[in-house]
Please model this.
Amino acid sequence: MRPARIRRFLGGYRRELARHGVSGWRLRRRILGEAGAHLREAARRLEAGGLERDSAEEQAVRRFGEAAALARVWSAACDPSGIPVRGMDWAGGSAAGLAVGLIAALSLGGRLGQRVDGELLFVGAALLLGVCLGVGQWLLLRSRRLAGWTWIAATGVAFCGGLLATSFLWESSGLPKGEPVQELAALLFIGGGTGAVVGALQRLVLRGGLTGRGEWVLRSCVGMGLGTAAGGLAAEAALGGFRSATGLLLLCIAGGLATGLSTAAALRPRAPDYCSR
Amino acid sequence: MEGDALKGHLDMLVMAVVASGATYGYAVIEALRSRSGGRLDLPEGTIYPLLHRLEMRGLLRSRQTPGGRRKRVYRLTAAGQEALEQQREAWRSFAEVVGLVLAEEAP
Model:
């Protein structure tokens, strides 16, 4: 049978956990189970050391800590923003977002192609790609409270603006085009530039105490630039060029994966400080 | 020991005692107390959120033991071993630098 003083403490602890928003019956059962086992063992040892049972229980409870203070620590430990996003999940979400965006853009473009101006189609496709990239990443960020819906808007607008601006700059640069090396340079420039603009706007809406916040723009630029170029190389080797639906899909997947892997390292949360509480 | 002095080091200390064989919460807090000569005397309940957080970060793994007096036992994962080694190395280097600066000049 559970000793009375320990039982009373666990009852109070349960209420404090609920009051501090530590939710989920599995977690609460685990917390209270571990606390109960700890207190019983501590009381048993103190009793074996010569204390009366009641005093042993009282001392065990006192050493365990104040229920309200412990519940506050649990509340911080269970804050989902303290859980890092796994690199492969983040890379997968980014690549899947871009791939879905491309498929949607190609599908819509196929239906609207006859009726809508080509440049407008390009703008729409770029916006769709950016929004889908934003959604793919936001699905991982929202449960950790690292970003709200503005993440999707920022990513969509930045991707569209970055892609249009860098494409225009490259086209109007007067540099020779057509050779595989020049195509690769174009992918590096357009991918890297778009990544930089996306990174800059995402950084503005990224919440939380992340350790890699300052590197976000650079990581996004490098990841998207190198990923797009790698996708271009793979498409050149496998398909003879990237200007086909499969080739573009390769670009999107490689670009998304590389951007995700590059920026994932910057999503490290700052550890909560248990000692200062 | 003051809480501020422990800032940022408690994770490393807990992983070190888990690595040395303290496998459940009570044993971890006892090991911290005894290995520090009684100077590390935290409220015992604070160890559990910390263990939980290390588990969420993939540095520890836990399982419930079968039987009547069920306990949750913890062990370091490969990532935890690696993180512990890195933190040990960083601590040695930090302690060496501070020691050099604080050392009194030889007469």
